[in-house]
């Protein structure tokens, strides 16, 4: 049978932050966290959709504890405001799900001038994680550890050369390459985070949902009407698993007492199935590349681990 949602332990007293918890994998994750007793903080840009998600969770889970706070990961100012607001309300955070993201959208720039997918999917979450780190470290007491789970995807294999000097593809943008770069960055960030915080009680994990039916594919197809976008939309609709299954890798990484940091959790059969530990090979497992990505991210965001740790 493999690991399933019913294997999630009691999360009473735990605070979990979920980016993009208003739909798809994030909503499925938030629902399970609430069902197992966690206080769930959903960060979302579309507040109307987020309120509808909270209503749905509360109607399905009696006594659910869910709050909504505005978060636009494409704006470093919004990320900073969200982190400040959340930590004022929750000085201790046990779980952070870096879940939200864009997929294969037209070329654009964030409010801070970053390529839109790299800036949102990776740099937004990088800045958020470091700014929430004081609250995550506060959760690391005794046998309790805080966990940060970064959602990657099979799209990471479309990252091309993954040249650290050219991750924003200036002058030669390709929507799928840019998406792959951002998803590979999510994976490598999780592994480097785990390494840099070793011994401090905060562990980093990566999670791959496989092929999951969410609004992500439809949104991408609406934004760019290419044959490739249509292909992936149709393929996922025909072969994808429900969002509740796609959410299991990140739920296992975050809640399984036996989960080990610095690992990738993904479906057993690559695109579907119960979550298992998946091997990481090639340059994606290169610690030097991961360290290089971290240093680049500190330069771009202006936020360093040293400044956070004091």
Number of β-strand runs? 8
Q: Which range does the strand content fall in?
A: 5-15%
At the first level of CATH, the class is Alpha Beta
Distance between the termini: 46 Å
Write the layout of secondary structure elements.
Blueprint (H helix, E strand, L loop, with lengths): L14 E5 L4 H12 L3 E6 L2 H14 L4 E6 L5 H14 L5 E4 L17 H24 L6 E6 L23 H22 L5 E6 L7 H9 L3 H13 L3 H4 L1 H8 L8 E4 L7 E4 L8 H15 L3 H5 L1
Parallel strand pairs: 1-2, 1-4, 2-3, 4-5, 5-6, 6-7
Antiparallel strand pairs: 7-8
Helix pairs in contact: 3-4, 4-5, 5-10, 6-7
Tell me about this structure.
It is globular and about 50 Å long. It is built from 11 helices and 8 strands. The protein has 310 residues and is α/β, with parallel strands linked by helices. Helices cover 45% and strands 13% of the residues. It starts with 14 loop residues before the first strand and ends with a helix. Strand 1, helix 1 (24-35) and strand 2 form a beta-alpha-beta unit. The mean pLDDT is 93. It has an 8-stranded mixed sheet with strand order 3-2-1-4-5-6-7-8, with helices on both faces. The longest helix is centred in the middle third of the chain and has 24 residues, at 116-139. The protein has one domain: NAD(P)-binding Rossmann-like Domain (Rossmann fold, 3-Layer(aba) Sandwich), CATH 3.40.50.720.
Question: What key attributes describe this structure?
Answer:
310 residues; eight-stranded mixed beta sheet; alpha/beta; Rossmann fold
